[in-house]
Amino acid sequence: MPFPSLEDYEEFIYTIPDRFPSVRTSTLLVIRLGRAAAEVRGYLLFEKDISLGVSEEISFATGRIRAYSYWVSQGDERLYWYDSQPHPDDPTLASTHPHHKHVPPDIKHHRVPAPDLSFTEPNLPFLIREIEETLLGQS
Description:
The chain is built from three helices and eight strands. By secondary structure, it is of the alpha+beta class. It has a domain at 1-69. Strands 1, 2, 3, 4, 5, 6, 7 and 8 form an eight-stranded antiparallel beta sheet that branches. The protein has helices at residues 6-14, 16-19, 124-134; strands at 25-26, 29-32, 37-45, 50-59, 64-74, 77-83, 100-102, 111-113. The protein is 17% helix and 35% strand. It starts with 5 loop residues before the first helix and ends in a 5-residue tail after the last helix.
């Protein structure tokens, strides 16, 4: 599926709590940077004090996410995060370069491939499902 238009993505972002009942609150904002670019910033809040932080830079002219960072916390504890910062010298990440996930132990330096993330499709549906399945025990 190609990346949606700016208007369609705004509608998606602002209706996330309606589409995903596990999301209790959303503070996500779509910040337009002209007619064909935007940033998405904010948090999705779940039960069990779990939050998903979101930072995306999107070009709707090219239909691509230019950069992203997603982080999952429970209370004040960072559980894991994803980012698109390239690590070309790490051969274990080559299969999904530059998409990767930071996980414990040594969360800053321990990275694993992230095959479910993309620059050409919205990532939030996958991230929400991952939280539902792994942290909230929903199937």
